[in-house]
Write a structure and sequence with these properties.
By secondary structure, this protein is mainly beta. The longest helix is centred in the N-terminal third of the chain and has 13 residues, at 81-93.
Length: 629
């Protein structure tokens, strides 16, 4: 059913409509991302926030876990109840000819490539393939990246350019290339996203002090370089916005930085070389891998003192936490194992044998995924089947391509396996295959794949444009209004069944509209003067018109190559006549006779001003026989 409600444009909120449908209240607001934009007035090219607050009308409780879907498409007239429902059904059925202009339930796949590019691909799994949307050009090859939670910005470290790229996700435009005073590598956003942090070295010289650069995400400018020590650096953050931790391999220390004052407050001395680290939100502690000694070191997140050193086997490499922050996974490529540590007791509790050279561990809500440099097999560990000390680690697998996914890839700090939105599924980038594979949990093999269009993908990421629940009963997404017109936004809820449409007006952008007119009309405006639209065959007919500059609207005089073409529609024949300028500025004319009966199209052209005969500024005349005949 279609509900009822009032809607309009509020100067405070922008567009707002509230409806009640099947006992469900839907408050829909549309607002600008840019606070400088006029509220309630939307123009093509604007980045906007769609928000649906959904609640139960009886209890007024927010309706959580509703998973709404929405589409936005142009309409010629106000959408009535029947057409709204029909439109929603056509979108859900996925008919190719009924795809909406703006689908708010989609995601895009980005690949960080071997060269200085990022590919943006629309994974059209339901339509049998993919579509390359854009190639983002970077100043140099990217090493690591991070995305804002609202999916509006992407930041990429570029070591060879000594810069960090800030990319706007709505149109894939590089907004800034931020110099950081060294070679940036690992890159992270702090929890409130006010600062972006990136480790840096000084042109590869690890004998000099280097550390971390701090970037303001509002202005995309460098705030400060903080020297932490010598050697290679990795980085981790506490989950409360208080501390940033930087490792210094040559000094054998972990530097603790106050994220508010941007000052280094302590160096934690380790008995060995820090190799990798991760922060546990559950234990409120930092965990550091010492590969040479085969230990995992726990550092208290408040006192910044070493509280535990856990022994494993030499050669352990990278540490990553499963969802919840309790179980730490540490791979060992030298003996092909994965160790599982329980940080509630700070003890190694399980070890699993995996394939050759495990090099990266990532997680979904249900599984741990282990990628290998020496094997194309992706190993999975069910998270609900581990955690019991001494128990065997259950492992299942699938093929991640013809070659090992990371084989041949240059060093990269970003992930090669990421979770796909809206499903217990992952995307796997395969460097040599030049393919992204789609695997859904529970299947024996990948369900599909799509090409990266010739690029070698080092890493994969997702920009999710689907509607997500940000707070209880509040669902949001961001998108760019692509073109002007009257739109119908169709919203669908499955349980209870609700289909609701909202009408939105998007105004044309004046600059783009002017450019479109110039493209359509050409550089000259043709202003035709009144003429008898039904002349007799054989009579002299004077066709007079004025040529105006499309930019200044001023008459254009002195043109010697203005010509008029008369095209007889019935025979598809035409003839051209040179026009002469009159004594009035910019006014030209010809005197002609129409020889046959029929409909004539009269066009004006001027080669010197690139005004072609196919421009739409024509008139029509119908020549007929004199009545006496």
């Amino acid at each position: 059913m279609i509900g009822s409600g009032n809607y309009g444009y509020s100067q405070d909120e922008g567009y707002h409509k509230s409806v009640i449908n099947e006992g469900i209240k839907i408050d829909f607001t549309l607002t600008h991302i840019d606070p400088e934009k006029q509220p309630g007035v939307f123009t093509e090219g604007d980045d906007v926030l769609f928000r649906f607050a959904i609640s139960d009308t009886i209890t007024n409780a927010p309706l959580s876990g509703a998973f709404p879907a929405a589409w936005m498409d142009k309409v010629e007239r106000h959408v009535n109840r029947t057409s709204c429902g029909d439109k929603v059904v056509s979108y859900i059925e996925g008919k190719l000819l009924s795809r909406a202009e703006l689908d708010l339930n989609v995601y895009y796949v980005l690949t960080l490539n071997h060269d200085n590019t990022i590919s943006v691909v629309d994974p059209l799994f339901g339509y049998g393939g993919s579509k390359l949307l854009h190639i983002i050009q970077l100043e140099s090859t990217g090493y690591d990246w991070v995305t804002k939670e609202n999916q509006t910005m992407i930041y990429v470290s570029m070591p060879e350019a000594s810069q960090v790229a800030a990319i706007r996700a709505s149109d894939w435009k590089v907004m800034a290339n931020i110099p950081v005073g060294g070679k940036p590598k690992k890159i992270l956003l702090q929890a409130d996203e006010h600062y972006l942090w990136t480790t840096y070295s000084l042109q590869g010289n690890f004998e000099m002090n280097s550390g971390v650069a701090v970037i303001d995400t509002e202005t995309n400018t460098l705030v400060k370089n903080i020297e932490t020590g010598k050697g290679k650096h990795t980085m981790a953050m506490s989950d409360d916005n208080k501390y940033v931790y930087i490792s210094n391999s040559d000094d054998g220390t972990i530097s603790v930085i106050d994220a508010h004052t941007l000052e280094k407050i302590k160096d934690v001395k380790l008995n060995g070389v820090p190799h990798s680290m991760a922060y546990s939100s559950l234990a409120k502690a930092l965990y550091v891998v010492n590969s040479q000694k085969g230990t995992l070191i726990a550092i208290d997140g408040t006192t910044h003192e070493v509280i535990k050193t856990m022994q494993a086997v030499k050669g352990i490499d990278k540490v990553a936490f499963a969802p919840g922050g309790r179980l730490a996974f540490v791979n060992n490529p030298t003996i092909n194992t994965v160790d599982i540590f329980d940080v509630a007791v700070n003890r190694l509790i399980q070890t699993g044998d995996v394939a050759e050279q495990p090099d990266q561990i990532t997680f979904t809500d249900e599984q741990a995924y282990i990628r290998h440099r020496g094997s194309e097999i992706i190993w999975m560990i069910p998270l609900d089947a581990i955690g019991q000390e001494g128990a065997a680690v259950p492992i299942i697998d699938f093929s991640g391509g013809a070659f090992p996914p990371s084989a041949g890839s240059p060093e990269c700090g970003a992930l090669g396996i990421v979770q796909a939105p809206g499903a217990n599924a992952v995307l796997v980038s395969n460097y040599k295959d030049k393919v992204i594979y789609y695997y859904k949990e529970g299947m024996a093999s990948t369900m599909g794949s799509f090409s990266t269009y010739g690029s070698f993908p080092k890493a994969v990421a997702v920009i999710d444009r689907s509607i997500e629940e940000r707070n209880d009963g509040e669902y949001e997404t961001v998108a760019k209004l692509r073109s002007s017109g009257t739109y119908s936004l169709a919203l669908f809820l499955n349980v209870p069944l609700v289909m609701e449409c909202f009408e939105i007006t998007v105004l044309p952008d004046p600059v783009k509209e002017k450019a479109r007119i110039e493209t359509l009309l050409g550089p000259l405006i043709v202003k035709h003067f009144p003429v008898n639209s039904s002349p007799n065959i054989g009579d002299d007919v004077t066709l007079r018109f004025q040529l105006l500059d499309i930019n200044t609207n001023e008459p254009v005089s002195g043109l010697s190559d203005v010509r008029v073409m008369q095209a007889l529609f019935s025979k598809n024949t035409s003839e051209q006549t040179a026009a002469t300028e009159t004594h009035v500025d910019g006014v030209y004319e010809i005197t002609t006779k129409f020889k046959e009966e029929g409909l004539y199209y009269v066009y004006v052209g001027c080669a010197s001003h690139k005004l072609s005969f196919n421009n739409p500024q024509f008139i029509t005349l119908y020549a007929s026989k004199p009545k006496s005949q």
